[in-house]
TrEMBL record:
Similarity field: Belongs to the ribose 1,5-bisphosphokinase family.
Tagged with keyword Transferase: yes
Keyword Zinc: no
Name used for this protein in its record: Ribose 1,5-bisphosphate phosphokinase PhnN
Length: 186
């Protein structure tokens, strides 16, 4: 009988809009040994762009929730977000599973997943403002609201947090994240 596969940690990637979370996650999945990506289920129109996600209607999301499909789910910015239980399958034999989470669910996620690491992605305010304006998904008023939320702290009680500055070259943020995760996997 073979031993069960090692189960990698869930690596929550959090930070303000425009910090480059999705770009960092994609680059880490390519660069990081045995790092995998988890797609979120979101009640956002498929044509809205941005991250790779499974678009569903509110009714579809509610049906999935009732069926117990999600390991974790929450609401933010008028949308529903879910992390399917399939994340456990991805963890088997992985060096870690990267998932974009909301700061509001980090403590719950820490309890649900156990082996849990937070990469808190930051960027200087002027970089955030430039990135948000360039993507063109929000008007000026919404950009200002998102910038105001950017300074919200992480909740108290998280055990393993690494801050990654993504103000400059993506390669520098990837190197910093891999260095931060390396001792975690040792």
């Amino acid at each position: 009988m073979s031993a069960p596969a090692e189960k990698g940690p869930v690596i929550a990637v959090v930070g303000p809009s425009g910090a480059g979370k999705d770009s960092l996650m994609s680059a880490l999945a390519v660069s990081g040994p045995r790092l995998r990506l988890m797609r979120r289920v979101i009640t956002r129109a498929p044509e809205a762009g941005g991250e790779d996600y499974q678009a569903v209607t509110v009714a579809e999301f509610s049906a999935l929730e009732r069926k117990g499909v999600f390991a974790l789910h929450w609401q933010a910015h008028g949308l529903h977000y879910g992390i399917p239980r399939d994340i456990e399958r991805l963890r088997a034999g992985a060096g870690g599973v990267l998932v974009n989470l909301s700061r509001a669910v980090l403590l719950q996620a820490q309890e649900v997943f156990g082996d849990f690491i937070v990469l808190s992605v930051t960027a200087r305010p002027e970089v955030l403002a430039e990135r948000l304006s360039a993507r063109g998904r929000e008007g000026a008023e919404e950009v200002q609201r998102r910038l105001a939320r950017a300074v919200n702290p992480l909740p108290e009680g998280l055990r393993r947090v690494h801050e990654i500055d993504n103000s400059g070259a993506l390669s520098a943020a990837v190197a910093a994240a891999l260095a931060a995760l390396q001792p975690e996997r040792a």
